[in-house]
Amino acid sequence: MSGPDPRLESSAEIRARIDTSKPHSARFWNYFVGGKDNYEKDRELGDQIQEIFPGLVDVARTSRHFLGRAVRHLAGEQGIRQFLDIGTGLPTADNTHEVAQRVAPESRIVYVDNDPLVLAHARALLTSTPEGVTSYIDANMYEPEAILEKAGETLDLSRPVALMILNTLGHVGDHDQARDLVNRLMAGLPSGSYLVISDSTATSEGMIAASAAYNKSGAIPYHVRPVEEITAFFDGLTLTDPGVVPVTSWRPEPTTDTSIAVDAYAGVARKP
């Protein structure tokens, strides 16, 4: 089941919220993965940062590939049929619902984002197999209880859910606050649910310089963290092998180029 969500704003209301005078992380990331949903300011910043740190393009692309492997593992090997994807970003190839429903057509997916450009493209995400469901919530991660309440209209929160927060937690500058938000979201999900996180990390001078340049651009700041702070998001959960590792090293497939050194780490963990 799919179709336009009557709660989505009108196109005019959405366009009025889009600020093209400053770069934005969703559009910036879209530029790096080869998308077309970005503006001049996003491309200018992207080109500037590629000069500082060309490796950020690899971070964007390999992080996207991690999403596919994680969803295939959860849907295919762990039997997860419900996904809550927070910080959705702009639609590209192999979105969460496409990967999950390719494995299990009955999968149900809820996307959450509050960027108006993402919202404007939400209808492109609201596709589904006849057996499954996709929906979209216009909200931000600072409202975990509201997200869970709205997600419960599509997902059965008494059954396991995979909570996916990919390349999003860096927007929360305070690590304790970010951990609290993750904990509150996981508190609303039952035993057997999973947490999936990937994020850029402060593991090279190039990435640290790229982050500093991005944060000076006028965009909403994005903070790269030490690996141990990424690992701390999984406290109290059971990490799936191989633990918190570079995105290219998490259950690589034959097509995964593990020779690329990337400043992005990821992990998947189960709620006991």
Description:
InterPro entries: SAM-dependent_MTases_sf, SAM_dep_MeTrfase_SAV2177_type. Keywords: Methyltransferase, Transferase. One of its GO terms (biological process) is methylation. It holds the Pfam family Methyltransf_19. One of its GO terms (molecular function) is methyltransferase activity. The chain has one domain (11-271): 3-Layer(aba) Sandwich (Rossmann fold), CATH 3.40.50. Helix 3 (40-52) runs antiparallel to helix 10 (205-215) and helix 4 (55-76) packs parallel to helix 5 (96-103). Helix 9 (175-187) links the parallel strand 4 and strand 5. It is 39% helix and 15% strand. Strands 1, 2, 3, 4, 5, 6, 7 and 8 form an eight-stranded mixed sheet that branches. It is built from eleven helices and eight strands. It has 272 residues and is an alpha/beta fold. The chain starts with 10 loop residues before the first helix and ends with a strand. The relative contact order is 0.16.
What integer value in Å does the Rg equal? Answer: 17 Å
- State the CATH class: Alpha Beta
CATH domain fold name: Rossmann fold
- Overall 3D shape: globular
* Share in β-strands: 5-15%
Biggest pleated sheet? 8 strands, mixed
Instruction: Give helix % range.
Output: 25-40%
- Order of helix and strand elements from N to C terminus: HHHHEHEHHEHEHEHHEEE
Q: What is the number of domains?
A: 1
Low-pLDDT segments: 1-8
User: What is the overall pLDDT average?
Assistant: 88
Specify the structural class.
Answer: alpha/beta
Instruction: Give me the CATH architecture, please.
Output: 3-Layer(aba) Sandwich
Count of extended strands: 8
According to CATH, the homologous superfamily is Vaccinia Virus protein VP39
Helical run tally = 11
Determine the N-to-C terminus distance.
Answer: 31 Å
GO molecular function: methyltransferase activity
Pfam families: Methyltransf_19
Protein name: S-adenosyl methyltransferase
InterPro entries: SAM-dependent_MTases_sf (IPR029063), SAM_dep_MeTrfase_SAV2177_type (IPR006764)
